Structure formats: structure tokens, C-alpha cells
UniProtKB/TrEMBL annotation:
Keywords: ATP synthesis, Cell membrane, CF(0), Hydrogen ion transport, Ion transport, Lipid-binding, Membrane, Transmembrane, Transmembrane helix, Transport. The gene is atpE. This is ATP synthase subunit c. GO terms for cellular component: plasma membrane; proton-transporting ATP synthase complex; proton-transporting two-sector ATPase complex, proton-transporting domain. GO terms for molecular function: lipid binding; proton-transporting ATP synthase activity, rotational mechanism. The chain crosses the membrane at residues 6-31, 52-76. It is found in: Cell membrane. The record marks 60 as: Reversibly protonated during proton transport. Belongs to the ATPase C chain family. SUPFAM superfamilies: F1F0 ATP synthase subunit C. It is a multi-pass membrane protein. F(1)F(0) ATP synthase produces ATP from ADP in the presence of a proton or sodium gradient. F-type ATPases consist of two structural domains, F(1) containing the extramembraneous catalytic core and F(0) containing the membrane proton channel, linked together by a central stalk and a peripheral stalk. During catalysis, ATP synthesis in the catalytic domain of F(1) is coupled via a rotary mechanism of the central stalk subunits to proton translocation. Key component of the F(0) channel; it plays a direct role in translocation across the membrane. A homomeric c-ring of between 10-14 subunits forms the central stalk rotor element with the F(1) delta and epsilon subunits. InterPro entries: ATP_synth_csu_bac/chlpt (IPR005953), ATP_synth_F0_csu (IPR000454), ATP_synth_F0_csu_DDCD_BS (IPR020537), ATP_synth_F0_csu_sf (IPR038662), ATPase_proteolipid_c-like_dom (IPR002379), F/V-ATP_Csub_sf (IPR035921). It holds the Pfam family ATP-synt_C.
Length: 84
């Protein structure tokens, strides 16, 4: 039982850590491209900003799905049922 719980904790840590790292990299790339696009065509800055916020929301949604999966494994671990 302890082995299953320790592996679950490791997996949840990886899910949350890699999800956070991926989101941070995505936001960095997104912000950089926004600045680059606005510098090239300043008249499109408003439209690009709106689209950036749309993509930022979708990027955060991926992380929240990972958090939900991680919390599922923490609080309702399906692998513990196989012990009996």
C-alpha cells in the first residue's frame, strides 16, 4: 500500500510540476510573440492582445485539467482498490 501511495505522490508531483513548467514556457513564448507582432504592426496591437488573452485562457485550462487529474489520484486513488 505504501508503494502505491508513494508512486501516486510522485506521479501527481510530476503532473503538477510539468504542467506548471509547460504553462510558464507557453506564456513566455506567447508574450514574446505578442511583443514581436505589436512591434511589427502597431495598428494590430489591440486585436493581437485580445487573441493573446484567448490563447492564455486555453493555456491555463490545460494546467487546470492536469490539476484535476492530480487531485483525482490524490483523493480517489483507483489503484488502491486492486489491493483487496
Amino acid at each position: 500500500m505504501q508503494e502505491i501511495l508513494s508512486h501516486t505522490a510522485l506521479a501527481v508531483g510530476l503532473i503538477l510540476g510539468l504542467g506548471g513548467a509547460g504553462t510558464a514556457i507557453g506564456f513566455g513564448l506567447l508574450g514574446g510573440k505578442l511583443i514581436e507582432g505589436t512591434a511589427r504592426q502597431p495598428e494590430l496591437g489591440g486585436m493581437l492582445l485580445g487573441r493573446m488573452f484567448l490563447v492564455a485562457g486555453l493555456l491555463d485550462a490545460v494546467t487546470f485539467v492536469g490539476i484535476g487529474i492530480g487531485m483525482f489520484f490524490v483523493f480517489a486513488n483507483p489503484f488502491l482498490g486492486q489491493l483487496h
